[in-house]
Amino acid sequence: MSGTSRTLLKITDSHINPGPFQKMKCKLALQLFSNTVTAVIKTCVTTLQIMSMTGAYTANFLKHKNDLFDCLNSKCLYSSNPKMCALSEERPRQIQFLSEAKRLRGTPR
How far is residue 63's CA from residue 53's CA, in Å, rounded to a whole number? Predict the structure, then answer.
């Protein structure tokens, strides 16, 4: 087993092949849309452990979804993670990020 794959010890078979009740747990899905999984995929692409041409695109997709969840689940006025701060006019980057996410959602493929 490579050192890179050991970083995903928290990802279990339930994340990949969930049972009927596990499919209702958002927590399992959100753990896949994490910065950790994004970093591991990017590392595997860089070290050629993943030979897929879409590996980098997948990592970017996961990063975007993680940031979007952080932004939409913001609870406090201030946070060390800028995406988790409450929306306000003082933070135009979050509003720009959400506008861009909305624009990307409407882009036909």
Answer: 17
Three-state DSSP at 31 gives helix
Interaxial angle between packed helices 35-46 and 55-72, expressed in degrees from 0 to 180 and rounded to the nearest 10:
160
Q: How many residues does the chain have?
A: 109
**Residues 73, 6: Cα–Cα separation, whole Å:** 29
Residue 1 is predicted with a pLDDT of: 43
Q: Is 21 left (phi over 0), alpha (psi -120 to 50) or beta?
A: alpha
Task: Please report the beta strands in 1-109, taking only residues with DSSP state E, as ranges in sequence order.
Answer: none
Q: Return the half-sphere exposure (C-beta side, CA atoms, 13 A cut-off) of residue 47.
A: 11
Inter-residue contact 92 to 62 (CB < 8 Å): no
Q: How confident is the model over 96-106, as a mean pLDDT?
A: 84
> Rounded CA gap, 71 and 86, in Å?
8
In terms of Cα–Cα distance, which of 37, 90, 85, 89 is closest to 64?
37
